From TrEMBL:
TM regions (residue ranges): none
Protein name: Opine dehydrogenase domain-containing protein
Organism encoding this protein: Cyclotella atomus
Coiled coil (UniProt feature): none
Gene3D superfamilies according to UniProt: N-(1-d-carboxylethyl)-l-norvaline Dehydrogenase, domain 2, NAD(P)-binding Rossmann-like Domain
Alphabetized InterPro entries for the sequence: 6PGD_dom2, Opine/Lysopine_DH
Amino acid sequence: MAQTTLLMGGSNGTATLTAILGDKSNAANAYHILRVATRSGDKYLTTNADGVAEPRTWRCEEKRHISDLIAADFMPTRRIVHVGRPDSVFVYGGDDDVDSNDLSPLEKAISGVGAPDNGGPVDLIVLCCPVSAHLSLLRRISKALYKLNALNLLGTSSSPILIGTLYGAGGFDWMSRIAFHKGRPDNFMGWHRPLALFCLKAFPYLCKSLKVGEVTLHGRFPQIQVAVSPSDAKTRTVAKRILDRLLQNEDTGKQLEFLGLSGPESVGGDGTWGEEERVIMAGEWNGVQQGIKANSAASAVMIAARTKQQIQSAKDHSSSAVALPPPVVSSHSAVSVPVEQQRTAPASPTLDLLMTHSLSDHADPSSSLAFITCTLNSTNQILHPCILVALFRDHNNEARSDVDGTIPWNPVNTAFPRFYADGAAKPEAGVLITKIAGAEMYFVIDALERLLSPRGYEPISALHGGEPMGRMVMNYLGNSPSELGARSGLTMDSLKKEWESTFVNSASEKADNVGDETVEEEVGNRPGLINKEKILAKLMSYGLSHNGRLNAVLSPCIVVDDKPSEDGTILIKPNPNTRFFTDDTQHGLCIYLGLAELLGFDLERDMKWTLYVVRRLQRWMGKEFVLPESSENSTKQIVSDAKDMMETSAPQAFGVRSIGELRQFLKLDMFGDLKYERAKDRLLQSGLVSKL
């Protein structure tokens, strides 16, 4: 089926997808127009013999494991080579920040106006970038979409334009609300074509490019779980078709799993999507899609024949290989089904599912709980900061490493330490990860679940523990979020505080309520709450340091002194400008600390280890995301009063200072629409009101 995808950002993820999806010898890529929009064209444009810029060809060598669930060096693997290129590349820059009657490069990339391909308006916009770049890119996208909407250049399709990210940490839906509400023009009256937002819970690839034009895919994440908004059957159906193709699920055998209240029971939902999928896949509506798919596959044979020789030459690194442009395929020619048949309503029960809402969709129409699930259960924000703290500690010179993380390193085997194989192997890494991910984060998850989710549902805590194996172990040992929340007493304490803020009017009434307590249970984080904590810490270090997908990753380092000492060591320190810092500290751990503050936790007691890690890393970064440890700060709010808090994704940075305000914030439309305001205006202008 025809699809036009726009990749934004010049990251390793963009390179990987360019090589895989741009491989026109693969029949699955027929009628898939691939565009790249990037701030610099160096990586994705090259100059041909005539001096004309054209899309660069990328080669991806994939290490495919027999199982992505347990990826170890001793497990069988095979090598697969992908070679492909985008159909068109758009370089945006300062011109996107200037109001102009002409279309900017990004606006052309989205609308297809003036594009050298035949893809028309995009179906999918994917942010392939660090979390720290999400807000700035969303603001660019929102500005472009508002302008194209006013010019009626978003296309006439009733299917939504899907906008999202390969990694949903950092409050992606929160940033979308900010970007679209901030950029909304005064005369905006609604979207002519619907929009939908998505994010993946985990980045699907572990990939690295060390040379322009080449990228290595070390492995794939075992599960593909996604949050999609709005929460309805049609959006989920469209998202499944588009994202399955983006992520090559037909090739890998992976299944897209929707998160939130409408997801499967295994992820805390009510199973709505499973019912929809069974009916839709068996219905007449799907028959039309299958016909289109069959037509695309047949046409792909011709494309494969035309490109097989040049692709094979590129795979073999032949010096005679010429990177010719892929055949231009019209997105319109892919659909052989008559227009009348396309517009025919599907039969029941498919029609009933597509046009009605389940109770779970009504309970969370924006799927905010699914996005929070992605924000709170992403693994990088747990692993990277803890490993950084453990790796960049010099036990022989603690004072020096405390300042900026400077340590000695012998580069005889690798230029820098291997981040997981060397860093995670340190016992302190396993200890910190276990204390933070196995307790402190669980306190927040469980309390927030009780205050935001419908009673009896657990869409947030259902995905605790990172990967499936970790979740299974924690549940088996009695260390689930609900169990940690109960043992610590923090969940019930948060419920009491929220009740007081909602129903108790005065300090005297609060004092009376406290006096009614006959037995004061111990509340808060304390030693012994995590069952088998020492064993878990050792298993964590061993598992990460022996993971076949991760062992080649080097640490982000800066050489302090390259003159070797007598034992051959040089001095290095961590690079605080890399995503291991900028993504996972201020857009990861700081969110947890901010939520804990909203929940009324004593951060010094209940989030002790998270605070320790953030304070150490922010010192290396020269920032103050949380207040430093000091007796003078005892009366201040550790997150809210920090001078660099606004650079984080803590809820306080979005103007949210209570759980009640968080609930209100999550009701805002993700794309700046004011449907209720327009409904109010229509009401006030109605004939009935005019008579009053």
